[in-house]
Amino acid sequence: MSHNSFGQMFRFTTWGESHGPALGVVIDGCPSGLRIDAETIQRDLDRRKPGQSKYTTQRREADEVKILSGVFEDDRTDGLRTTGTPISLMIENTDQRSKDYGDIRDKYRPGHADFTYHQKYGIRDYRGGGRSSARETAARVAAGAVAKLVIPDVQIRASLVQVGPHKIDYSRFDWDEVDNNPFFCADPVAAKEWATYLDGIRKEGSSVGAVIEVVAENVPVGLGAPVYGKLDQDLASAMMSINAVKAVEIGAGFEAAELTGVTNADEMRAGQEQPYFLSNHAGGILGGISNGDPVVVRFAVKPTSSILVPRQTVTEKNQNADIITKGRHDPCVGIRAVPVGESMMALVLADHLLRHRAQTGREGGIGHE
Amino acid sequence: MSHNSFGQMFRFTTWGESHGPALGVVIDGCPSGLRIDAETIQRDLDRRKPGQSKYTTQRREADEVKILSGVFEDDRTDGLRTTGTPISLMIENTDQRSKDYGDIRDKYRPGHADFTYHQKYGIRDYRGGGRSSARETAARVAAGAVAKLVIPDVQIRASLVQVGPHKIDYSRFDWDEVDNNPFFCADPVAAKEWATYLDGIRKEGSSVGAVIEVVAENVPVGLGAPVYGKLDQDLASAMMSINAVKAVEIGAGFEAAELTGVTNADEMRAGQEQPYFLSNHAGGILGGISNGDPVVVRFAVKPTSSILVPRQTVTEKNQNADIITKGRHDPCVGIRAVPVGESMMALVLADHLLRHRAQTGREGGIGHE
Amino acid sequence: MSHNSFGQMFRFTTWGESHGPALGVVIDGCPSGLRIDAETIQRDLDRRKPGQSKYTTQRREADEVKILSGVFEDDRTDGLRTTGTPISLMIENTDQRSKDYGDIRDKYRPGHADFTYHQKYGIRDYRGGGRSSARETAARVAAGAVAKLVIPDVQIRASLVQVGPHKIDYSRFDWDEVDNNPFFCADPVAAKEWATYLDGIRKEGSSVGAVIEVVAENVPVGLGAPVYGKLDQDLASAMMSINAVKAVEIGAGFEAAELTGVTNADEMRAGQEQPYFLSNHAGGILGGISNGDPVVVRFAVKPTSSILVPRQTVTEKNQNADIITKGRHDPCVGIRAVPVGESMMALVLADHLLRHRAQTGREGGIGHE
Amino acid sequence: MSHNSFGQMFRFTTWGESHGPALGVVIDGCPSGLRIDAETIQRDLDRRKPGQSKYTTQRREADEVKILSGVFEDDRTDGLRTTGTPISLMIENTDQRSKDYGDIRDKYRPGHADFTYHQKYGIRDYRGGGRSSARETAARVAAGAVAKLVIPDVQIRASLVQVGPHKIDYSRFDWDEVDNNPFFCADPVAAKEWATYLDGIRKEGSSVGAVIEVVAENVPVGLGAPVYGKLDQDLASAMMSINAVKAVEIGAGFEAAELTGVTNADEMRAGQEQPYFLSNHAGGILGGISNGDPVVVRFAVKPTSSILVPRQTVTEKNQNADIITKGRHDPCVGIRAVPVGESMMALVLADHLLRHRAQTGREGGIGHE
């Protein structure tokens, strides 16, 4: 049991606070012999990095990753390789400006973990939210980059599909558009509209929520296990562990409640080598196990809690007060959650791939395979 | 790591197939000295039991629970008590009618785990779905009844809040109505409308999805832990592990995406002894830790996959076929998911209460508590 | 985390008390497709069964195992097969004679868990020791029989090598002798001497300790992992978890302390396909990982604590008293620990074989393999 | 499941190789509010540090620990305090001299993990043993220093009690002597004899094994749990996880095999408030649970495998060769295992103390407590 670890066979443990000297992740269970380099990990980190547009926090962090262990290179290895031992990755914090947070030392920010951390632990690192800061997701993204090495054939992509009340039009959905706008949005028209909308939100000193869709293609059949090792269960857990996430759905999700058994059924047809499905309401998972279709997950992120509009709150001493959260924050923290969602998908799939290997040795064979 | 266990400190492991001799659960970590009896567990099981109305499967199971271990009674204990050792509960299967399922031996039922189990394991117990049957949830409900002994002050209730496209009207919400209709519905007007609607669905040989809301009141502040031990994360995992669940949300859930930071903020005011919240968009959880407000979870259940309308599928040998799933099924499996949702809430809270105890010994004290 | 489970990928959970209705085990993670039958499991249980000679307890238990889940058979499976779902095994208690234990209700038996259970849990099932009874080992032996299906090429054998101060002569060691005497002893001469010695001990109403040696041959190279997943670490944990065990050693064990680096070195020579070792002080494990040589474990069992000689103790109310433990006990509980040791070896190796599979997928290959 | 983590509630994960940039440990589950400082941790690290006498390796490492997360200080905390979030500790490697190890790139050193790592992972960091180096124990000692904060009332001490064939005389045992000689030996006379003996061993270019005894006093009654959460089981696992350890025993240990039930019984007498024991063959543990008496563990360390005497081995290409392991090694690696043994004891006890808290909430009470 660990409060700061995730995964079973591909297991990672994150550490670090927003305003401490560094944050990092230890990955345990990564197979050996995989080619790895800091540049690949850095590329994923750079996508999540703050300060890249006016729609994300202006905090500027280099977010430079260092590989401290678990890799080796000599003249025979053809580059740096994983060795099967724990991979320790560290990112030093460089732009902390602790003074920005001094005035919230005694007050609980609504929507933040201030109150609950203080109640539970009797002490809290209030500088930038400490452990509850979205900065922790940098460690996930670094781990996710390693996870992708374990599942090289799986393609994972994500798009912002809703900002506030504004949803994308799926008829315009184009993965190639995701990197053409500051929102990781697959609908270029929606992206333009969101720009205007978010400018307004930002100027009001407010913030807004969002929905992210993550899709994994080419997932092998068989990942996941009944009954409490379901792939969708672990995906739900993974996405809900991201800061500010309040909802998760797989495939048809909440819409499935409205469907009948007739319309919801993903009918099957015989294929060349394998049967295939005529629809994917299931989101690629049946009975908790991947069925070969794209794994589709959506999750909702609440609006950033740190806003410039004054809100009512209380002090640590249980006295009424108002609060404005200054500092540098995302008007829509959901934007930066897009690469984080991809990383969590990679981490869950890598873990289940390794688990699957262990489960399915069938010595002695069996008749009707 | 275990595919069939859930929880960390209050940990349960279920076993059994739909058409095997029995199913059961082993609970490990239940504190000692709690008064327990088979009747209390039976009462919860009876709420979930099939065959209670025409809206649930006509399979008739006594679902009689036996306590096989972990309890003790003598003239000093004032009744049966838990001893701190594993509590083994068993329910024998009595009404199995295996013949009903013989014709689906070779075909995959759309929406079921048939295809994925077969692909993963190379063998499947097709009788009633085997391990993937909703019968497994009886074991959860039995375990949940024990979990409730650990959190006697917490009140957990649930209501069906949507059947197909028909939602309840929250202005009529009344917990006292839940046991007055066959749908566990807190809105008596909606319940009547659903009766008519579901009669139609049943006669069509179809089925329909549903949404369940579970609310836990009087939850102590402090349950849950950053970052991968979040209470909402475990609730999402718990609910998604229930058969046919496709979506989970906490508090405002997906609606949070549409809100601004100003409207979503749960403002605080100073109370007599503790501060209190003016709203509960958070669903009782901040930063993964309970804040003392009601914990609110909703989850969506897809329509029962076993329907009498023929659907296209393939055989195990990858040949096209049509299939009708005879047998005795629920037109809306979401109904029986209501008590299951309550049980999962109890199991998660009991686990986190025990974990909380371990985490919060603060020897040596600290200044600003 | 579970106090009553062992293993990671091949994980079992035992439950049950000495004088409850039954005891059992749930095995989670057993691969699918393995041929299994109750007879094979029964055969192992019968070796451990009490009442087989005057040197073991006269309690007579049928110890008949029932397979309740996790298996399936139809006309295509060529017998009963595992399905990959949890295998639940149950053994009903038949010969309990609870009255024998009535007079120890209020007194702590020296060397038993009575005092510590009572202190920890505030309640104890004193009938036959409850959960602390050696009867729990029947559940392990049943699980071990299933574990052996996972490692069919590994040969596991054990011998009693010391009873009280009397050790075997290794020059007479012959595995074929183990089943020719009531002590599972590979030295037939020692077995005869022990018979006389143990008759004396039994007549005195006393008991005596023992040492067991377990050897696994044909173990694949590579099982185990640095640093806290060492094979020897798990073997130590496994053997120490058996009732009354006070010491465990691997290979040269405590004798290694007396050796120099020169004599202790297991030198290597080039073999036809693989290198081989000229000695096995390591007991088949280097750096926590199996090296292909026989895995050799020895463990010491203390004398049975239940004896007929009066000993000083206290009551639950902290008053001085004397105690004689009547009932039917083993004069040397180490004898029946022999098959238990074999089972624990099988359980650890099966678990590590499955773990090994997950760890060693090396996609992308590597140069110097 | 994690191969590089230990503990359940107080759980630590180590990472790092002998010749990588750094090594470290992440501690998860440490309660909040404990006063902590780098100096306290450093003090324990300095005891284990190499290069302190001619009897340990001449490698000179500053072993300077940095606290990277999990702590906080402001004007209200009275010094640095733990916050309940993961504590990340890092020690940079400074004196690596990789060239020393270049010639063992292609050969397996007998007694080392070279062969098994290579077989398992297909790649190995041969520089100083990489992950299998005893340098990993620095991370344990750092973690152990934090563990001691959780159990401030428990006193843990250890002594080397045997070097090669030379045992201490327990009649001269004096804890105060431990820090007066370079062997952490409680018998000053033995320490002098060992000095002469080890000088000889060192000059021969050989090495020798040792036995360490660790004693924890003032351990609360009730730590540990039946059946696979036994305190002695976890202690066995902990000690066996230390590099080069081949044997572990609790209390009377292997000697218990020679005793009768009459002599082995730890009789009890009524005390003022609690009963007490007249002897401690049990080593402070009954039925897997601490009984309040000193917890006594001994473990054997094999002789350092790296010696200057040529030994036969093979190359990676399975060709015969001789090998001398140059570099800077301990003639008796058991010496530096003394503080490591203390640390492992602290880590196991801290973990079980936290587990105990979770297990023993007895809401509703019970009559005969």
TrEMBL record, chains A, B, C, D:
<dbReference type="Pfam" id="PF01264">
    <property type="entry name" value="Chorismate_synt"/>
</dbReference>
<keyword id="KW-0028">Amino-acid biosynthesis</keyword>
<feature type="binding site">
    <location>
        <position position="48"/>
    </location>
    <ligand>
        <name>NADP(+)</name>
    </ligand>
</feature>
<dbReference type="InterPro" id="IPR035904">
    <property type="entry name" value="Chorismate_synth_AroC_sf"/>
</dbReference>
<dbReference type="InterPro" id="IPR020541">
    <property type="entry name" value="Chorismate_synthase_CS"/>
</dbReference>
<feature type="binding site">
    <location>
        <begin position="243"/>
        <end position="244"/>
    </location>
    <ligand>
        <name>FMN</name>
    </ligand>
</feature>
<comment type="pathway">
    <text>Metabolic intermediate biosynthesis; chorismate biosynthesis; chorismate from D-erythrose 4-phosphate and phosphoenolpyruvate: step 7/7.</text>
</comment>
<feature type="binding site">
    <location>
        <begin position="131"/>
        <end position="133"/>
    </location>
    <ligand>
        <name>FMN</name>
    </ligand>
</feature>
<feature type="binding site">
    <location>
        <begin position="302"/>
        <end position="306"/>
    </location>
    <ligand>
        <name>FMN</name>
    </ligand>
</feature>
<keyword id="KW-0288">FMN</keyword>
<dbReference type="InterPro" id="IPR000453">
    <property type="entry name" value="Chorismate_synth"/>
</dbReference>
<comment type="similarity">
    <text>Belongs to the chorismate synthase family.</text>
</comment>
<keyword id="KW-0274">FAD</keyword>
<comment type="function">
    <text>This reaction introduces a second double bond into the aromatic ring system.</text>
</comment>
<comment type="subunit">
    <text>Homotetramer.</text>
</comment>
<keyword id="KW-0521">NADP</keyword>
<feature type="binding site">
    <location>
        <position position="54"/>
    </location>
    <ligand>
        <name>NADP(+)</name>
    </ligand>
</feature>
<keyword id="KW-0456">Lyase</keyword>
<keyword id="KW-0285">Flavoprotein</keyword>
<keyword id="KW-0057">Aromatic amino acid biosynthesis</keyword>
<feature type="binding site">
    <location>
        <position position="328"/>
    </location>
    <ligand>
        <name>FMN</name>
    </ligand>
</feature>
<protein>
    <recommendedName>
        <fullName>Chorismate synthase</fullName>
        <ecNumber>4.2.3.5</ecNumber>
    </recommendedName>
</protein>
<feature type="binding site">
    <location>
        <position position="287"/>
    </location>
    <ligand>
        <name>FMN</name>
    </ligand>
</feature>
